[in-house]
Amino acid sequence: MKKLLPIFAIALFSIASIAQTARVQVIHNSADAAAAEVDVYINTDLALDDFAFRTATPFLDLPAGVEINIGIAPGNSTDVGDVLLTVPVTLTADEKYIVVADGIVSPTGYNPAPPLTLQVYPMAREMASNPANVDILVHHGSTDAPTVDVVETGVGAGTIVDDISYTEFQGYLELPTADYVVEIRDASGTVGVAAYQAPLATLGLDGAALTVLASGFLDPSQNSNGPQFGLFVASPLGGDLLELPSAPLGVNEFSDASFSIYPNPVNDRLYISANNIDLSQYSVAITDMLGRILTNDVLNIDNTVKVDNLSEGIYNLTILDGNRIVISKKFVKN
CA angle at residue 93 from 118 to 48, to 5 degrees? Predict the structure, then answer.
């Protein structure tokens, strides 16, 4: 069973006796099967028992101004002597930190196999600096993924993360609360790896501060058939990480000026217009704001799509060339 211990700091230290404290969130992102559950020690004391992969603690108060040892041990450990990794840290009073466990502990079965490490990010946030925004800290924690860019294609924000490599953090992105589509591309920014929906507005995340982690393996066959690559979100409240839903992968080729859909809002039938472009060679998909594909078919001869069977709400209409996105537009179904 996954267990997060909210009495983490209380069980280890009497808060009343600590003159200085810092706020710390710990995230388990080691995709090695041997580390599916780990025990976390602070100095010699067990702090987290059976801490599961893709879970996070809430922000917790730990002593500041003195060196403490954070130790990672197998989930069946009996005492601090079983730790696989010990990292000494001295926290700054009243500072906030995010600590992510990445890497591999098994001697074989993984390629590449960087060792288990703890990545520490200071100046963490528990809420957005502007209540109209969502502040997002991005962390590259996928051991077999190359240096990548993150490109927003849903609202046309473009490259939002440039050349992030394994173990690195990108400082907080302060994004207006909206629904986004993000593509993971190679360092050149031209070759797509994967694409995801990030429905920040639909989920009502105004004012939130989140950590988004690249997690799992691009090629599970080279990594003991471990968990597939994805983007996962950690809340300051802790608990299971939330997986971002996938989106069709591609690079926009139509310009917004040449492509339109109407009427919007729509009741029964949505018309698609693309100046000087033959749409008969393309297919069309409609997805909800969680990325679920509701329809996927060729266009009607009059370039229309029936939407009368959809419930009221916001959807994406996506033009596809095979499995590659050409362009995507939001519409409202009345």
Answer: 40
Task: Using the CB atoms, write b or e for 214-223: b if 16+ within 10 Å.
Answer: bbbbbeeeeb
**CATH 2.60.40.10 region(s) of the chain?**
252-333
- 252-333 folds as Immunoglobulin-like (2.60.40)
Say how far apart CA 32 and CA 19 lie, in whole Å: 38
Q: Give the sign of the dihedral formed by CA 231, CA 235, CA 238, CA 240.
A: negative
DSSP H/E element including 23: strand 21-28
pLDDT means per 10 residues, the chain with 334 residues, are 41 53 97 97 95 97 95 96 96 97 97 97 97 97 95 85 96 94 84 86 91 96 95 95 80 59 93 82 78 76 89 84 70 91
pTM, to two decimals: 0.73
